Amino acid sequence: MPVIRSELYIEAPIETCFDLARSIDVHAQSTSQTKERAVGGVMSGLIELGQTVTWEAVHFGIKQRLTAKITEFELPFYFVDEMVRGAFKRFRHTHEFCAVDSGTLMIDEFDYTSPLGPLGKLADRMFLEAYMRSFLLKRNLYIKQLAEKQAA
Questions:
Q1: How far apart are the first and last CA of the chain?
Q2: For 2-15, b where at least 16 C-beta lie within 10 A, e where not — what string?
Q3: Which sign does the torsion angle of CA 130, 134, 137, 139 carry?
Q4: In what order do the strands lie in the sheet with 3-10?
Q5: Where would I find the Coenzyme Q-binding protein COQ10 START domain in this sequence (predicted)?
């Protein structure tokens, strides 16, 4: 059960960071390397509490679909999305935002369990955890770049 946690300071208002992080359009832009696109549920704009989105993407050369639901939400401080259907056995992705000085501290925590029991644990150690860490970091750096550009 890996937990991937990162903290990133963004020189932009908390509301800007929060909205960029829950934007379906920004998510699709930030994950273009996997051809990620919304194909069900909320397909553009800002996702809200109780809503779902189904993503289609290519990971490891395989087209996959994953549906996530916003299960917790407190504007502009945090939201949580959890997998409803997809390749993982389960995941819980927490996005926290704290106003700090003239900017925002974005705290991202991705807690997941791979499928296939011991084989999934082996995959985590061999490549999946590093892949997910890199994938999430690229997305968060994209949000940082957009937020700071908007704030300038």
A1: 39
A2: bebeeeeebebbbe
A3: negative
A4: 3-10, 103-113, 90-100, 78-85, 62-74, 52-59, 37-41
A5: 48-125
Helix (H, G, I), strand (E, B), or coil: what is residue 85?
strand
Triad 136, 92, 13: Cα angle to 5°: 55
d(CA 39, CA 36): 9
Q: Which two tokens stand for residue 98?
A: 């704290």
Q: Which domains does the chain have, with CATH numbers?
A: 3-151 (3.30.530.20)
Residues whose CB is less than 8 angstroms from the CB of residue 34 and which lie 6 or more positions away in sequence, other chains included:
57, 58, 59, 135
In the structure encoding, which two tokens stand for residue 92, read together?
Answer: 């819980």
The DSSP code sequence of 17-39 is: HHHHHTBHHHHHHHTGGGT-EEE
What's the pLDDT tens digit per position in 38-78?
999 999 999 999 999 999 999 999 999 999 999 999 999 99
| Lookup: tokens for 8 | 């990133």
pTM exceeding the 0.90 threshold for the entire prediction: yes
**Whose structure tokens read 């106003």?**
99
Q: One-letter amino acid identity for 15?
A: E
